[in-house]
Known about the structure:
Its main location: endoplasmic reticulum. By secondary structure, the protein is mostly helical. It has helices at about 10-15, 20-40, 45-70, 75-90; strands spanning about 95, 105-110. It has one domain (about 5-110). The longest helix is centred in the middle third of the chain and has 27 residues, at about 45-70.
Amino acid sequence: xxxxxxxxxxxxxxxxxxxxxxxxxxxxxxxxxxxxxxxxxxxxxxxxxxxxxxxxxxxxxxxxxxxxxxxxxxxxxxxxxxxxxxxxxxxxxxxxxxxxxxxxxxxxxxxxxxxxxxxxxxxxxx
Length: 126
């Protein structure tokens, strides 16, 4: 499919993507966090490592998205978010226009549904 014919739909991309069992993913991620806690011992350092890992994973996801969806270049943030919502992820977001300032700035509003407190079992094997 060429770029001229438009991007593939999210359903078509989702159908062609390999899937991983959610339990396997959860256990693997938990093992990584546990190992980082054991190796680094400082929760702040663990959070920095996890943040860097998340950033790198995000970069790879975007690369894969661009390779599989045949999306052209977006010119602004709004167009980028709309393209991702249409083609890649089915999300519910709200656009807020900053009318009070008199400019055409746009923001994405995301609603936090639930906050889960973070608890780390630190060296429970001692």
